[in-house]
Amino acid sequence: MISIRMTFPGGEERTIPVIRALTTAGSAADNGIVIDHPSVPACAVQLEKQADSLRMTALASSRRELPRMGGKAVQEAVLKIGDTLLLGEVRLTVCMPETSARADSGEEKARAPAADAPGGDAMETLLKFSEAMLGNYQIGPLLRLMMDQVIELTHADRGFLLLMENGVPVVKVARNPRRENIPDGSVLLSESVVRKVLETRQPQLIHDALSDPDFSQSASVMSRGFLSVLCTPLVEKGEVIGLIYLGNDRFAHRFGERALELLKIWAAQGSLILSNALLMNELETDNETLREVMDTQHFGGLIGTSAAMRNIYRKIARVASANVSVLVVGETGTGKELVAREIHRRSPRAKGPFVTINCGAIPENLLESELFGHLRGAFTGAVATRRGKFQAADGGTLFLDEIGEMPLNLQVKILRALQERVVTKVGDSRADPIDIRVVAATNRVLKDEIRAGRFREDLYYRLNVVELELPPLRERGEDIPLLANAFLGRAIEEMGAKVKGFSSGALTAMRRYAWPGNVRELENRIKKAVVLAERSMLCDADLELDAGLPREIMTLAQAKEDFQHRYIDKVLELNNGNRTQTARDLDVDPRTIYRHLEAKRELQEGGDAGGGSRNKTS
Prior knowledge:
Blueprint: E1 3-7, E2 13-17, E3 22-26, E4 33-34, E5 45-49, E6 53-58, E7 68-69, E8 72-73, E9 76-80, E10 84-87, E11 90-95, H1 102-111, H2 120-133, H3 139-154, E12 158-165, E13 168-175, H4 191-200, E14 204-206, H5 219-224, E15 228-236, E16 239-248, H6 257-296, E17 298-299, E18 302-303, H7 307-320, E19 326-329, H8 336-345, E20 354-358, H9 364-372, E21 373-374, E22 386-387, H10 389-392, E23 397-401, H11 408-420, E24 422-424, E25 431-433, E26 437-442, H12 446-451, H13 457-463, E27 466-469, H14 479-495, E28 501-502, H15 504-512, H16 518-532, E29 537-538, H17 556-574, H18 579-586, H19 590-609
Parallel strand pairs: 3-4, 19-26, 19-27, 20-23, 23-26, 28-29
Antiparallel strand pairs: 1-2, 1-11, 3-5, 5-6, 6-9, 7-8, 10-11, 12-13, 12-16, 14-15, 15-16, 17-18, 21-22, 24-25
Helix pairs in contact: 2-3, 2-6, 3-6, 6-7, 7-8, 14-16, 18-19
């Protein structure tokens, strides 16, 4: 058996056999070969056993920590019997067992699990992991610890832990054997491997991805040179909650069946621990959010305690800390900018700028300059070089309001800015790097805009990592008095009015009104009523909410008919317009679906004949 003789400064020698097929050497206690000297890096080299030699790969984070052979720094080398390697001030010599110190040999064998002990490493690592995380449910440290210990267990070159968010796997941790984060880890993943694991819900072991018929034609495999890959799902109660992805691009056949079995054992227990931690964090977030709402009836700048708004508060609390793009949708006047500000205020970027731009309020010929800036003389009127909104939001959040109004040619440039994190001023050829988070908002249905060719599908998915749909005011009945009193208090303070409150008739009228302009309309009506009020208590007439205005309430028969039409449309959409399947799902005669579509077509044709479709509320 090949051994390593370590010669320390002062002449002390120690010899340790290389038992494992793949191991690491360094001063840290979790290495396979521990070199206890301060001059040696924590994780210095990786050693792979071959027939009569060792293949050495340096793991140093800087050139000064590289091992040296013959006075020269080396990154990789094949070490044969008698070859010497210098790590810091410690000399390593490859030798045969005859020159080994038996005491040291015995010590190493006792310390390291036997190579043929199935699951020994996995059980030891899993035990350490369970003990370390007992009662500790902080997600960040937990994920890093999970990944570091999986890399230690399997001797992977790099490892990634992905969690499912809205059905999409998102990289949460990317680590290397030195227990360091890997920047932009998602670009080092093979999407085809991840997709197959999600589809089959089974682990995938690829000995050599470049020659594997299932993956060799994958663009990510060919462009990034993947070799050995091991990926397993994390499953809890039958649901995939995440994945562990391990990769190596230097030696094919790194991972074997034993590595797969060890990882499956580890992932089973790791899934349970991770699921419990996620549940605890979710409960803590929900409790904190509910306490804040119940104590103050406010959530930052948002007001309301209805179930619909509490759901929005929970989502804001969860998404704020994640550096992902958010799309806020809802009718005009529902408070989309307030939601964007609250996401920014609760995010790690809170100390950075919050910059807004209304994409529908700026002429198309000026919008590019507003977004990306311009150089002096780039166009008529450009008398000075100016930064755009993207540059102004560097280190903070950019709020793109009315993104559905964005011209197609600028959508391409926004997509490039979000993908590459750089922008170019009008008239300039040099790109400026940016570090921003984008929150976009629209009152349009962007999927309809995509089908009509007015919005890019790739930009939609870039912006819509997480979607928040704000409820209209008519669905927030119990919030209306809270909002009304808050707006009344602000108006009284601003105008010095002597109004004291609302009559019972005003409160009833506000709850019955449909509010097509939503929260903005409510605030404006109250301001106007305060200005013109002649009494101390505002009544329904002051708010112009008399019997002639539209009402929210419809008859029960109308409500049933309205729900039926909307539900049939929803199921048709789920079935991609398949009428037969829709009728089967709804357990009705297919003629019911045909009559529904015919009535809908006649209604649309009648509307067009009577003056065209309704104008979009803006």
